[in-house]
Every structure is written in C-alpha cells, then in structure tokens.
Amino acid sequence: MSNAEQTVQVTLSLPKDIYERVARAAVGERRQLEDLLNALVAEGLDAHATVRELFERVSEQYRARLTGEGKLDQSADGVLQELRTLREQIVRELYP
Amino acid sequence: MNSIRSDSVALDTNVFVFALRKEATYPACETLLFDKLSELHVYIPLQIFVELQRNLTNDEMRGVLRALVRAKTVTWDYVPAPAERIARWEQQGAKKGDAVIAAHLEAAKIHYFVSENRHFLTELLASPFQVLTSEEAIQLLR
Questions:
Q1: Fewest 10 Å CB contacts: which of A31, B12, B19, B67?
Q2: pLDDT tens digits, residue range A36-66?
Q3: Residues of chain B with pLDDT > 90: what percent?
Q4: What residues of chain B have any CB closer than 8 angstroms to a CB in chain A?
Q5: Above 70 in pLDDT, residue A24?
Q6: Nearest-angstrom CA–CA distance, B55 and B40
Q7: Closest CA relative to residue B40, chosen from B8, B11, B80
Q8: Is there a contact between B97 and A87 if contact means CB atoms under 8 Å apart?
C-alpha cells in the first residue's frame, strides 16, 4: 500500500466559525465532513508546494502505475507511436 | 513581435507524458513542465485535454490540473476544432489527428506548439504556428 493510500487518525481542534463553514460546505457539496477536511488540508499543502513538487507527486504515482502495468520500460519511440495511434482513435470518436 | 514569454503556448500530450515518465531520451520535457511552467501562458485544446484524460487516472489528472494553474495563465479550450480547418489541413497532407491540433491552434491564434512529434514538421509545412521541441522552447525562454 502506498503512502497516499495509508491513513493516520488525528484529532483536530478548529475554531467554531471555521468548523461551521466546513460543515456547511460539506452539506452543500454532499460530502462527508472528513473527506472535505482531508481535501482542504491537501489543497492547503499544495498552495505551499512548488510546481516541481506538485508534478513530482503525480510523476511518482504515474510511474508506479506504469511499473505495475509493465509499461515503464517502453521505448520513447514506442510511446510516441502509441500516442499517435491514440490521437487518431480519439479524432475518429470526436469528429466521425 | 511574437515571444514565447508573452504569447500562449500549446504543449503536446507527449510533453506531459515524457515529463511524467521522466523519459531519459527527452529530459527537456521534464525541465519545461516542472521548472519553467510558471513562465508560460499555456493553451490546452480539447484534443489534448482528452488525450491526457485517456493516459492518466482521475487522480493523476487532478494532480496535473493542480500544477497547471501555476502557469502564468492557462486556457482550457473545450470547443471542438472547426471542421473546415481540419479538412484544409488534411488536404495539405496532415493525418487527421494532427490536422485537428493544427485547426485548434490556428483558430485560437496560437503561435507556439511544443511537441516531440517530428511528424508535425514534415506534415505541416505552412503552419501558422512554430513547432518547437521542449529543448528549443527552453532555449527561447533563456
């Protein structure tokens, strides 16, 4: 299990007005309060991250997935060819 | 006069894919996207948005979107490419997929397209935009 999938329980004390705003937003967005708080903390951290840090996180996740699918070793030419094939496929769908 | 610093730049799907893969053959893709993004006005046409969606999971896509908002500006163009322009680029020898990209960029008056796909240079001889590799784009930013 990756770090992103593991969870740690924390107890959080919030000012009442902040809590009420989050609770209202959770109702408005039809989300669990815990999910929304999780997303808000992650977004807050992102605001402090550099562009490289944000992309590095996605890259790590992407490369791990490609490794699992046995595709990370694919040659650059192979990737380009696959992208060209995908482009033609999408075009056939969007512009029949 | 056009400048890569002041004009919008479209990034091809292969730039994103090679950057995220950390492809050793094209290291400039990572440098351009990870380190130079904040110097660019980025334009993403519908075709490239859909291609990114097909290559990435929802979570990975969200991560890319979160990072892309750090560009100087980012424009998402969800309008399909104009059919008459696609047809014209096809008549000039472009494969339909590349014709769609060319039609998007032409309609949006985009002057720079960064791609590692060299077919663009051979297929689109009279394109109204400049096709650059990531390395060339970085050189222009220096």
A1: A31
A2: 999 899 888 888 899 999 999 999 999 999 9
A3: 87
A4: 13-14, 17-23, 25-26, 33-35, 37-38, 46-47, 50-51, 54-57, 59-60, 63-64, 66-67, 70, 80-81, 83, 86, 95-98, 100-101, 116-117, 119
A5: yes
A6: 23
A7: B8
A8: yes
Q: What angle do CA B88, B90, B95 make, to 5 degrees?
A: 155
Q: Phi and psi dihedrals of A39, rounded to 5?
A: -65, -40
What pLDDT sits at residue B128?
85
Please tell me the distance from the alpha carbon of residue A71 to that of residue B21, in angstroms, as a whole number.
10
B7-58 tens-digit pLDDT: 999 999 999 999 999 999 999 999 999 999 999 999 999 999 999 999 999 9
Residue with tokens 């808000």, as numbered in its chain: A40
Please spell the DSSP secondary structure of A36-80, one letter per residue: HHHHHHHHHHHHHS-HHHHHHHHHHHHHHHHHHTT-TT--HHHHH
Instruction: Verify whether the Cβ–Cβ distance B116 to A80 is below 8 Å.
Output: yes
Q: Can you tell me the distance from the alpha carbon of A37 to that of A23, in angstroms, rounded to the nearest whole number?
A: 9
The interface predicted TM-score of the complex, written ipTM, equals: 0.93
Residues 31-50 of A with CB under 8 A from B: 46
pTM of the model: 0.87
Residues A31 and A27: their CA atoms lie apart, in Å, by 6
Contact B25 A76 (CB under 8 A): yes
Q: Give, in order, the Cα–Cα distances in Å from A74 to each of A84, A88, B29, B125, B133.
A: 15, 20, 17, 30, 21
